[in-house]
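Hi everyone,

Forwarding the result from last night's run.
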Amino acid sequence: MRCSCHNFEPVLTRRDMLRASACGFGSLALADLLKADTTRAANPLAPKAPPLPAKARRVIFLFMHGGPSQVDTFDYKPLLERDHGKPLPFSKPRVFSSGTGNLLKSPWKFRQYGQSGAWVSDLFPNVAKHVDDLCMINSMWGSNSRHGGALLELHTGSDTFVRPSMGSWITYGLGTENQDLPGYITICPTLTHGGVNAYSSAFMPAIYHGTPLGNAGISSDQAKIPFIENADKLPRSLQSLEVGLLRQMNEEHLAASGPDTALEGRINSFELAFRMQTAAPELQNLSSESEATQKLYGLDNPRTANFGRQCLMARRFAERGVRFIQCTHSYKWDQHGNLKVDHARNAEEVDQPIAALLTDLKSRGLLDDTLILWGGEFGRTPVAQGDDGRDHNPQGYTMWLAGGGVKPGIRYGETDDYGYYAVKDKVHLHDLHATMLHLLGFDHTKLTYRYAGRDFRLTDVHGEVVSGLLA
């Protein structure tokens, strides 16, 4: 006998209702694919006003992958020169490698520059001319002495778990000022030590993921936004038909599968890619820049051209409204040996382009609301490794900021007399992230994303805004 209860119509549960209604998000994202005047209210990259007063509108991160030596660049230590060859007069921390020896003086001379009288080594003669615009942090420290963990801690706030990168957090909080370009672009990103996790959106929607232009294995003149080079060879009307069919297929898939963040991300990416076809090719064509500008960035010099192109592209992306741009000099600064030759070559490749970027942004009125961040995942030891090398050192190192509301022409914090440990006004990477978000108009404790039953943030449960860095 069949039970009469089997004749009832199925009940629409709350879960079913949410599952069905969520399918509409993909349609909303696709709504303006072919209609430029359609509202962007549902666009997750629509520009948003920060909740607090902001000094910076965008960030350019100049990442020196490998760990430049603070005692050979921006942290002058006279006692290191005086006591060259002597044992370190205090205990060494546990670091990545074993077998470091006695104190090793810098092979380069330091000189004072600008009204601030900041000390800079001869490795950076061009950047040195801008010291009165720099906010030098000589007391950085991190929690990890290995490249992979330290690199991820710098980029994501965590050295142990996959977390959204700082560019993803900023794009999530602010959107982008140009709907025809990604909100977060990373130029020639590293393939090692975390790889894609360094610019990943992790558990956030894929629309906040960094868009890579090339990778560390290719020259920057080949670093293009993918899949747009041949857009002009296919009539836009035919592309519209193809994208329309793709939209229909994706909507049907989404309706059948229910909420799918990966599919939602693909829908958004197809929409953005369609719009980028007009904006991106012209933007990536550096030949439109004057000969003087190209020479300023060192594009006429084989030594400086590669990183010079990155910096010039960063300026172009910044003035077009991209929120977070990263230029990576990878993977060159890890001098366990051959310090004198390799650090000199590395600095020569980036010194002129970085100085050009500062000059160019300032002349265009962009430096005031663009936050520049320079540094690596850690520093180096003041003691020798072998005859001519330095080991990893996350205990105390230098990063510098410029523009975007930071106090110019200052040196903040100190390492000890030899440059090993941060000892005064220490700034952890969490503090750096908190300060960066503050400059962009966010309380780092309130910029959260809920996932798996808890609220996440870039600084996790740590971090303090460093008021001494603020203008």
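Confidence is low (pLDDT under 50) at residues 1-10, 17-41.

Cheers,
N.
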